[in-house]
Write a structure and sequence with these properties.
Elements: H1 16-27, H2 35-45, E1 53-55, H3 56-63, H4 67-80, E2 83-86, E3 89-92, H5 101-105, H6 109-124, E4 127-134, E5 137-144, E6 159-161, H7 166-173, H8 177-186, H9 200-213, E7 216-219, E8 226-234, E9 240-249, H10 256-277
Antiparallel strand pairs: 1-3, 2-3, 4-5, 4-9, 5-6, 7-8, 8-9
Helix pairs in contact: 2-4, 3-4, 6-10, 7-9, 8-9
Length: about 280
């Protein structure tokens, strides 16, 4: 073991340049920032599937920290039982899962989705929502409204018929053919506007198209003057468990303008939600 790399005995060592660099960064930090905690988290984050074990030099380089700071962080993790050292290499121990795991396990789907819906609304400047399917209805689990685009006030728990909404069509399209056949055979479509698709054969074709293209675009079928676009959200097994959408008031131009403008942002949001859901199994709305 080289003297510069060994930390199994908790030797911090001295590195004037490392201390000076730390001091320079600390000088511009807000007084509320806990720099030591930030260092520790930076070191933890560099361990992943591609880097299950690292030397001190590697951990410092990947985290962007001075060697002295990385050494102190690794010393602390080893001392507390969150990491171990074998030779020159360090690796995280299973005990690291204790950090925040109980809180994560209690998260609901709505709590995971909501911040993404809020960010989506801010990016596109339109109202955004997320919902799940309950029988033949969608149920809103998250909502960010920039302005009222519907006569009905939408809030968490609001329900609409799935067949006439963009999120509902995304969720219906993800069901099996047998399930959809039963749904189409039994549904009685409520004519909510002059644009509502009430013909069930046409509705079945729309759901097939939705499945193929991976999104649903509804033009004034739920309410005149309102257009919406939705994409699916997946669990860690790839099953569709929710949908996220953007709704806007009808404006001059083609309905496809909404697709061109918003679909990339919707897909970006759905991908971010999917990534956040991968560590979890079944989640309640």
């Amino acid at each position: 073991m080289r003297a510069g790399d060994g930390v199994s005995h908790g030797v911090e060592g001295t590195a004037a340049s490392g201390r000076d660099a730390d001091a320079d960064v600390d000088a511009v930090r807000a007084p509320e920032t806990i720099r030591a905690l930030e260092r520790g988290l930076s070191v933890i984050r560099v361990f992943d599937a591609d880097h299950p074990s690292l030397t001190l030099s590697e951990a410092a380089a990947l985290s962007g920290m001075p060697r002295a700071g990385a050494r102190r962080a690794l010393n602390t993790l080893v001392e507390l039982g969150y990491a171990e050292q074998v030779g020159r290499e360090f690796s995280l121990r299973p005990r690291i899962l204790e950090l925040g795991f109980e809180q994560l396990a209690d998260l609901t789907l709505a709590e995971v989705v909501d911040p993404h819906v809020q960010e989506l609304s801010e990016r596109v400047g339109e109202s955004a929502s997320a919902s799940v399917l309950d029988g033949g209805e969608i149920v809103y689990i998250a909502r960010a409204a920039t302005r009222s685009v519907m006569r009905v006030h939408i809030r968490t728990g609001t329900r609409f018929p799935a067949e006439s909404t963009s999120m509902g069509r995304v969720l219906l399209a993800a069901r099996s053919d047998d399930w959809l056949d039963g749904f189409i055979a039994s549904v009685r479509v409520e004519r909510r506007s002059s644009f509502t698709t009430t013909d069930t054969a046409r509705l079945r074709a729309i759901l097939e198209q939705t499945r193929e293209q991976g999104y649903a675009h509804v033009d004034q079928e739920l309410e005149e003057g309102v257009r919406s676009l939705a994409v699916p959200v997946h669990d860690r097994d790839g099953a569709v468990i929710a949908a996220v959408n953007v709704a806007t008031a009808v404006a001059p131009g083609s309905p496809s303008d909404l697709v061109r403008r918003v679909l990339p942002e919707l897909r970006r949001t759905a991908a971010a939600i999917d990534a956040d859901l991968r560590p979890f199994g079944h989640m309640e709305p």
